[in-house]
Structure formats: C-alpha cells, structure tokens
UniProtKB/TrEMBL annotation:
<keyword id="KW-0472">Membrane</keyword>
<keyword id="KW-1003">Cell membrane</keyword>
<feature type="region of interest" description="Disordered">
    <location>
        <begin position="60"/>
        <end position="94"/>
    </location>
</feature>
<comment type="similarity">
    <text>Belongs to the UPF0161 family.</text>
</comment>
<dbReference type="InterPro" id="IPR002696">
    <property type="entry name" value="Membr_insert_effic_factor_YidD"/>
</dbReference>
<dbReference type="Pfam" id="PF01809">
    <property type="entry name" value="YidD"/>
</dbReference>
<protein>
    <recommendedName>
        <fullName>Putative membrane protein insertion efficiency factor</fullName>
    </recommendedName>
</protein>
<comment type="function">
    <text>Could be involved in insertion of integral membrane proteins into the membrane.</text>
</comment>
Length: 94
C-alpha cells in the first residue's frame, strides 16, 4: 500500500501540481509533505499526517516552515519489561 501511495503522489507532483504553480503557504508543499510523511511513517500514519496538513492549509493560515515530524523510536523500556531490583523503589528502613 505504501508503494502505491508513493506512486500516486509522484504522479500528482509530476502531472497536476505544476498546473497550480507556487500557491502553497507552507514549506515543504503539501504534496511534498505527504510524500515524505508516507515514506517516513508508512501508509496509515503518513496519510493521517498528510490529511491533517491539508486541513491546516487554508487562506487564513499563517503558513511557514512545517516539516514532517521525525519517526518515533521505541525505547528498550517500551518493548521489554524488565523488573530487576534496580527498577523497583527502594524501601526506607528506620
């Protein structure tokens, strides 16, 4: 699915986007943002980020630099549950 979306976005950028010219208020343009979002985050999250971006793109938007957020990295603590003694709270002895 990811490759299909990337192909569709590239076709849009090549065939349709040049007809509009430079009208995007944001940098990168919405189509470039969508392409990068799908490449970085995959088809589901990338599509969601692209739809959110399109929702922000309206005549009253301030515009400006709006990069694709970086991919979240899972830490070891998210994937492995280790309950060693060092992770447990220390008891206070009187």
């Amino acid at each position: 699915m990811k490759h299909v979306l990337i192909a569709l976005l590239r076709v849009y950028r090549f065939a349709i986007s040049p007809m509009y010219g430079q009208v995007c208020r944001y940098h990168p343009s919405c189509s470039a943002y969508a392409l990068e979002a799908v490449q970085v985050h995959g088809s589901v999250r990338g599509s969601w980020l692209a739809v959110r971006r399109l929702g922000r793109c309206h005549p009253w938007a301030a515009g400006g630099l709006d990069p694709v957020p970086p991919r979240r990295r899972r830490s070891r603590s998210d994937s492995v549950t280790d309950t060693s003694e060092t992770d447990l709270p220390q008891e206070i002895h009187a």
